[in-house]
UniProtKB/TrEMBL annotation:
<feature type="modified residue" description="4-aspartylphosphate">
    <location>
        <position position="51"/>
    </location>
</feature>
<keyword id="KW-0238">DNA-binding</keyword>
<comment type="function">
    <text>Member of the two-component regulatory system CutS/CutR, involved in the regulation of copper metabolism. CutR suppresses a defective melC1 gene, encoding a putative copper-transfer gene, probably by altering copper metabolism.</text>
</comment>
<dbReference type="InterPro" id="IPR011006">
    <property type="entry name" value="CheY-like_superfamily"/>
</dbReference>
<keyword id="KW-0804">Transcription</keyword>
<keyword id="KW-0597">Phosphoprotein</keyword>
<feature type="domain" description="Response regulatory">
    <location>
        <begin position="2"/>
        <end position="116"/>
    </location>
</feature>
<dbReference type="GO" id="GO:0000976">
    <property type="term" value="F:transcription cis-regulatory region binding"/>
</dbReference>
<keyword id="KW-0902">Two-component regulatory system</keyword>
<dbReference type="GO" id="GO:0032993">
    <property type="term" value="C:protein-DNA complex"/>
</dbReference>
<dbReference type="GO" id="GO:0006355">
    <property type="term" value="P:regulation of DNA-templated transcription"/>
</dbReference>
<dbReference type="Pfam" id="PF00072">
    <property type="entry name" value="Response_reg"/>
</dbReference>
<dbReference type="InterPro" id="IPR036388">
    <property type="entry name" value="WH-like_DNA-bd_sf"/>
</dbReference>
<dbReference type="GO" id="GO:0005829">
    <property type="term" value="C:cytosol"/>
</dbReference>
<keyword id="KW-0805">Transcription regulation</keyword>
<dbReference type="GO" id="GO:0000156">
    <property type="term" value="F:phosphorelay response regulator activity"/>
</dbReference>
<feature type="DNA-binding region" description="OmpR/PhoB-type">
    <location>
        <begin position="124"/>
        <end position="217"/>
    </location>
</feature>
Length: 217
């Protein structure tokens, strides 16, 4: 899942991004509304975690732009204002969910995951294919009943492949969904991660390389 965190309190923004990355999400961070509009125009995001009171361009205007562009991106709006009228106003602007500050990080994670599921074709909460069971919420992976411990990026790559339901996923698509914008697009990190993932999943191999195209399960 690719997430953009837009929050002018840099310590909070960085803390949220770090926590989301630990949940195997690819996260970009900006600290004002103008930068948010720039990123949204360049990258495809599943979810934007958007502070409402932003410098340069207000969070309301960022949200309106997402709606105006017709993007499948879901918006989780954050604000220190917790009145019902504020929440209603935010939702009427086009936000998909609303979370007042301060918030429990576990709730933020749950809401981001719930919104992420709404950006794609509905799938069961536990993904199953080729003897593999992947639970995105519990971050658990089993193959033929055996639990497999994966690093966050390995889990993210496997989740993208599982969600593709047998379709080929290119290295570029994996890079976009599982890594943030600071990753060198010419790196071999995708190939190395897939190799490690294959080894951990064991025999027989379930990740197939399609020459010149990408990978599939």
């Amino acid at each position: 899942m690719r997430v953009l965190v837009v929050e002018d309190e840099q310590l909070l923004a960085d803390a949220v991004a770090t926590g989301l990355r630990r949940e195997a999400m690819a996260v970009d961070v900006v600290y004002d509304g103008a930068a948010a509009l720039e990123r949204i125009g360049v990258n495809d995001y599943d979810v934007v975690v958007l502070d409402r009171d932003l410098p340069l361009v207000h969070g309301d205007d960022v949200c309106r732009k997402v709606v105006e562009l017709g993007l499948p991106t879901r918006v989780l709006m954050l604000t220190a204002a917790g009145d019902v009228s504020d929440r209603v106003e935010g939702l009427e602007i086009g936000a998909d969910d609303y979370l007042p500050k301060p918030f429990a990080f576990s709730e933020l994670i749950a809401r981001v995951r719930a919104l992420g599921r709404r950006t794609s074709v509905p799938l069961p909460p536990v993904l199953e294919r080729a003897g593999i069971k992947l639970d995105p919420n519990r971050r658990e992976v089993f193959r033929d009943g055996r639990e497999i411990q994966l690093a966050p990026k390995e889990f993210a790559v496997l989740e993208v492949l599982m969600r593709s339901e047998g379709a080929v996923v290119s290295a570029e698509q994996l890079l976009e969904k599982a890594w943030d914008e600071n990753t060198d697009p010419f790196t071999n990190v995708v190939r190395v991660t897939v190799m490690t993932l294959r080894r951990k999943l064991g025999e027989p191999p379930v990740i197939v390389t399609v020459p010149g195209s990408g990978y599939r399960i």
